[in-house]
Amino acid sequence: EVHLVESGGGLVQAGGSLKISCAVSGSSYLDETIAWFRQAPGKGREGVSCISREDDSIRYADFVEGRFTISSDKAKETVYLQMTNLKPEDTAVYYCAATWSPVCRGPWALKDDPYENWGQGTQVTVSS
User: Fold this and answer.
1) Cα–chain-centroid distance for residue 107?
2) β-bridge partners, 80
3) pLDDT of residue 93
4) pLDDT at position 31, please?
5) Under-70 pLDDT residues of the chain
6) In the 3-class helix/strand/coil scheme, how is 15-65 assigned residue by residue?
7) Tell me, what DSSP letter sits at residue 110?
């Protein structure tokens, strides 16, 4: 079973930066694609970014607008999301998710359904 543990969330002012991490443990067979999702209060969960651990394919949601960077440290079994120029509307609980399927290269890259394993989330709050 794959375990995902997010860390690094916190409070930051608008325009600031934050780097959150997702530590992956368990069967590497099941972590072909790692993705970040977020859920703001009163809203549904939305995909932010994904990375394929096999070929480093990367996708970003349109709202990222070049502000976020996803990366993977395979030796540390950790995936990062570096967020810059944060906006109050980025306030949300950020979750990482994993699936054995190479979805990051296709239309399901930032959809909930393909991802079997989820972390418990880390809160990111951006003050105005």
Assistant:
1) 17
2) 21, 71
3) 98
4) 63
5) 27-31
6) CCCEEEEEEEECCHHHCCEEEEEEECCCCCEEEEEEEECCCCCEEECHHHC
7) T
Give the span between the Cα atoms of 107 and 123, in whole angstroms. Answer: 27
Burial class (CB in 10 A: 0-12, 13-18, 19+), 111: middle
Query: pLDDT tens digits, residue range 24-39?
Result: 988 665 568 999 999 9
Report pLDDT for 75: 81
Q: In Å, how far from its chain's centre is CA 42?
A: 19
- pLDDT tens-digit series, residues 2-15: 899 999 999 999 99
Tokens of 19: 């780097």
CA angle, 35 then 8 then 81, to 5°: 35
Using an 8 Å Cβ cutoff, are 34 and 16 in contact?
Answer: no
* Tokens read off for 6: 């997010």
d(CA 2, CA 30): 7
